[in-house]
């Protein structure tokens, strides 16, 4: 049976500041407070699964067990049709530099270099949100946002691969639009809507 979320605070099991900002804003609409994984010094678990839900489950369960508090993890990524869905679950890995830092400009340039020869510009973002309780119970949700990849990348807002993605029905990239607009139509918002319908009390 689906388990309702009755707690008013939860641990957000992410080390990505851009995601944390967006998920915290979604939770704030339901008056749920966020404790960050960073502030608890939680370790970064290895993401060994090959699905978004699988990796979000690893992260959420690790945080819930370590903190003894309900935890929410987000595993997400960018997929390009001409690349058979790559980088997909390896989206963060494509940005990883030898020194451990991330270079998203280089990662976006790699996507463009590999995909430019195909007339198919379709692309999408996916977001798995997984809630985990300290007793091991989990609830998972998957949201997607479909559109096209564009080049050159454009816009300064958002994070990650936002500058090279224009959602269907929009003219601006995720990085050009007002954060509130991205917030209304994103893969993360779609997953959160499912979570809130299943686990949060009606407002
Ligand atoms: O695992 P955590 O600590 O949560 O943080 P992470 O950055 O490693 O997150 P993922 O493993 O889920 O990798 C997701 C990748 O997809 C990118 N990404 C996810 N959502 C995005 C969004 O809304 N806009 C742009 N890029 C996004 C993000 O920058 C990462 O490179
Ligand atoms: Mg990660």
TrEMBL record:
Subunit structure: Homodimer.
Reported function: Pyrophosphatase that catalyzes the hydrolysis of nucleoside triphosphates to their monophosphate derivatives, with a high preference for the non-canonical purine nucleotides XTP (xanthosine triphosphate), dITP (deoxyinosine triphosphate) and ITP. Seems to function as a house-cleaning enzyme that removes non-canonical purine nucleotides from the nucleotide pool, thus preventing their incorporation into DNA/RNA and avoiding chromosomal lesions.
Catalytic activity: ITP + H2O = IMP + diphosphate + H(+); XTP + H2O = XMP + diphosphate + H(+); dITP + H2O = dIMP + diphosphate + H(+)
Residues engaged in binding Mg(2+): 46, 75
UniProt binding sites for substrate: 14-19, 76, 159-162, 182, 187-188
Top-rank EC class of the record's enzyme: hydrolase
Keyword Membrane: no
EC numbers, comma separated: 3.6.1.66
Organism encoding this protein: Roseomonas indoligenes
Gene Ontology MF, one: dITP diphosphatase activity
Cofactor note: Binds 1 Mg(2+) ion per subunit.
Gene3D superfamilies assigned to the protein according to its UniProt record, in alphabetical order: 3.90.950.10
Cross-referenced SUPFAM superfamilies: ITPase-like
Gene that encodes the chain: rdgB
Protein name in the entry: dITP/XTP pyrophosphatase
């Amino acid at each position: 049976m689906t388990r309702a979320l009755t707690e008013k605070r939860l641990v957000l099991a992410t080390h990505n500041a851009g995601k944390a900002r967006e998920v915290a804003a979604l939770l704030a609409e339901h008056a749920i407070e966020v404790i960050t994984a960073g502030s608890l010094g939680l370790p970064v678990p290895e993401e060994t699964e090959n699905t978004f839900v699988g990796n979000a489950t690893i992260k959420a369960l690790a945080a819930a067990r370590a903190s003894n508090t309900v935890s929410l993890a987000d595993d997400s990524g960018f997929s390009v049709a001409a690349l058979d869905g790559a980088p997909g679950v390896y989206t963060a890995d494509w940005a990883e530099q030898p020194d451990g830092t991330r270079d998203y400009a280089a990662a976006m340039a790699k996507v463009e270099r590999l995909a430019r020869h195909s007339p198919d510009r379709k692309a999408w973002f996916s977001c798995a949100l997984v809630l985990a309780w300290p007793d091991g119970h989990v609830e998972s949700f998957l949201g997607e946002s479909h559109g096209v990849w564009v080049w050159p990348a454009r816009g300064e807002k958002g994070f990650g691969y936002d500058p090279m993605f224009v959602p269907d029905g929009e003219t601006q990239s995720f990085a050009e639009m007002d954060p509130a607009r991205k917030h209304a139509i994103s893969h993360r918002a779609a997953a959160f809507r499912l979570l809130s319908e299943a686990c949060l009390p009606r407002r």
